[in-house]
Every structure is written in C-alpha cells, then in structure tokens.
Design a protein that fits this description.
Largest sheet: 7 strands, mixed
Helix content: 25-40%
Distance between the termini: 49 Å
Order of helices and strands: HHEHEHEEHEEE
CATH architecture: 3-Layer(aba) Sandwich
Strand order of the largest sheet: 3-2-1-4-5-7-6
Strand content: 15-25%
Number of domains: 1
Shape: globular
Number of strands: 7
Number of helices: 5
CATH class: Alpha Beta
C-alpha cells in the first residue's frame, strides 16, 4: 500500500512535469549556444533541496538556479529558500514571469551576483563544453566562502578545486584551501 507521503510526492512530481510539458514543447531550441529545456528529475532535485536545508538549517538562505528556464526549480526551492533564477532566453523568462516565478534575464557568463547566494544550482545550461567550463570557473571565482554549489553534470571536476569541500550533493567553498 502506498503511503500518504509517497502519494503527495507523486502528485507534486506529476504536476511539475505537466507544467513543464505544457509550456516547453513550443520552444525547445536554446539561445546563443545554450540548451533549450533539459529536464532534471524532480526527486533528485527535492533531495538536493533537503540536503541544502540540513547544511544551513537556520537564517535566511538564498538560492539561485543558473539557466532557470521557466523557473520550475526556483518555484520548488522557494518553499524553503529565498529563491531566484537567471536565464538568457527571453521566451523562458517571460514564461517564468507569467507563472509568477522570480527569473531574471541575465547572461550567466557575465552575471555578477553569484556572491549574493548561499546555494547555487545548475544543470547543463550551456551546450558548448568550453563555454560551460568558463561559466563554472566564473561561478567558482565569484562565490563567497561558506556558500555552496550543486554542479549537476558539470564540465569541470569540482573535487579539483583546492578550496571546495564536498558535502552531500553540494560543494562548499572554504575560507582557504582544504588540507
């Protein structure tokens, strides 16, 4: 027999997938070397959010989705965090705004606000491997110590950064190089 918690999760997952299917088939090509919509499993994302909550259980927590699309992950994260997304494609930004989701039209490679966030999430926002690496180096260099990043399907090996410490599905930027 299915439990009420499992049933609630199934309903939520199906609702979000229906939302994505409703808005996204109309526009799937990416802009300027970026991917169009690439889905990430809701279950895995919810697990990341729970891990983030446990990593920083008190105080205001700010969450950023890089390459947010229509903002479904921002919408989910907003339940636990002060959440925002950035997206280069004006079509997706418009869809996010119609849904009441906080997504700003920004080029992630030029974005200067990464240090404002406690948790930064991205899932393959750029097709071009070299541009994706450039983005990840930019995010790393812009993060403040004590903040976290979840680089899903990353172009770089985040274990190689001397100042990053793996904590569950996240990497924490340390004050100085790890020992």
């Amino acid at each position: 027999m299915i439990g009420i918690s499992d049933l609630k999760l199934t309903v939520m997952k199906n609702a979000f997938h229906a939302l994505e299917r409703h808005y996204l088939p109309k526009h799937t090509d990416g802009v300027d070397g970026r991917y169009g919509f690439v889905p990430y499993k809701i279950d895995d994302f919810i697990e990341l959010l729970a891990e983030a909550w446990l990593l920083q259980p008190s105080g205001e927590r700010k969450f950023l989705d890089v390459g947010a699309g229509i903002g479904t992950k921002v919408l989910l994260a907003d339940v636990l965090f002060n959440s925002n997304g950035i997206e280069i494609d004006p079509f997706y930004v418009d869809m996010a705004h119609r849904l009441g989701v906080k997504v700003d039209e920004q080029n992630a490679l030029e974005y200067q606000g990464y240090s404002d966030y406690d948790f930064i999430y991205f899932f393959v926002p750029i097709k071009d491997h070299e541009l994706e690496q450039k983005l990840e180096y930019h995010i790393h260099s812009s993060m403040r110590p004590g903040s976290y990043v979840a680089p899903i399907s990353a172009a770089l090996n985040w274990d190689d950064f001397e100042d990053m410490e793996k904590q569950k599905g996240w990497y924490k930027k340390c004050q100085r190089n790890k020992s």
